[in-house]
Amino acid sequence: QVQLVESGGGLVQAGGSLRLSCAASGRTFSIYNMGWFRQAPGKEREFVGGIARSGGSPYYADSVKGRFSIARDNAKNTVNLQMNSLKPEDTAVYYCAATNLPFGNRARDYGYWGQGTQVTVSS
């Protein structure tokens, strides 16, 4: 198993930036495909982006493409989500998640989740 802990959330004005980090412990981090998801009040959890176990080019939801970027460091067991040009509609609890299934954007395919970190973007 792998344990995930997110950090870096907070309150930011529209147009600002935040960097979320996800630290993994437990089983070998490099065997997991990693995803970032978010859930706003009253809405379903949605895929934000992710990166395969070997690294390479990350994938992003259309809503964040060009504003968010994901990077992983298998040596440090971390995956980060850099969020720029934030908008009020980005307000949500952000989760990192891990899966040993083939990489994808479905939350139900991810078996390991962090506790989430709140991101609030004010207008």
Q: How would you describe the overall organization of this protein?
A:
By secondary structure, the protein is mainly β. Helices cover 0% and strands 54% of the residues. It has strands at 2-7, 10-13, 18-26, 33-39, 46-52, 55-60, 68-73, 78-83, 92-99, 112-113, 117-122. The termini are far apart.
Question: What's this, in brief?
Answer:
The protein has 123 residues and is an all-beta fold. The chain has strands at residues 2-7, 10-13, 18-26, 33-39, 46-52, 55-60, 68-73, 78-83, 92-99, 112-113, 117-122. It is globular, with a radius of gyration of 13 Å.
Task: Give the SSE map.
Blueprint: E1 2-7, E2 10-13, E3 18-26, E4 33-39, E5 46-52, E6 55-60, E7 68-73, E8 78-83, E9 92-99, E10 112-113, E11 117-122
Parallel strand pairs: 2-11
Antiparallel strand pairs: 1-3, 3-8, 4-5, 4-9, 5-6, 7-8, 9-10, 9-11
Question: What features would you highlight for this structure?
Answer:
123 residues; mainly beta; 7-stranded mixed sheet; globular
User: How many strand segments?
Assistant: 11
Distance between the termini: 40 Å
H/E series: EEEEEEEEEEE
Number of helices: 0
From the structure provided, what is the oligomeric state, counting identical versus distinct chains? Answer: single chain
What composes the largest sheet?
Answer: 7 strands, mixed
Query: Class by helix and strand content?
Result: mainly beta
Low-confidence stretches: none
The amount of beta strand, in percent, is over 45%
Rg calculated over all Cα atoms: 13 Å
Helix content: under 10%
Global shape? globular
Query: Residue-averaged pLDDT, rounded?
Result: 95
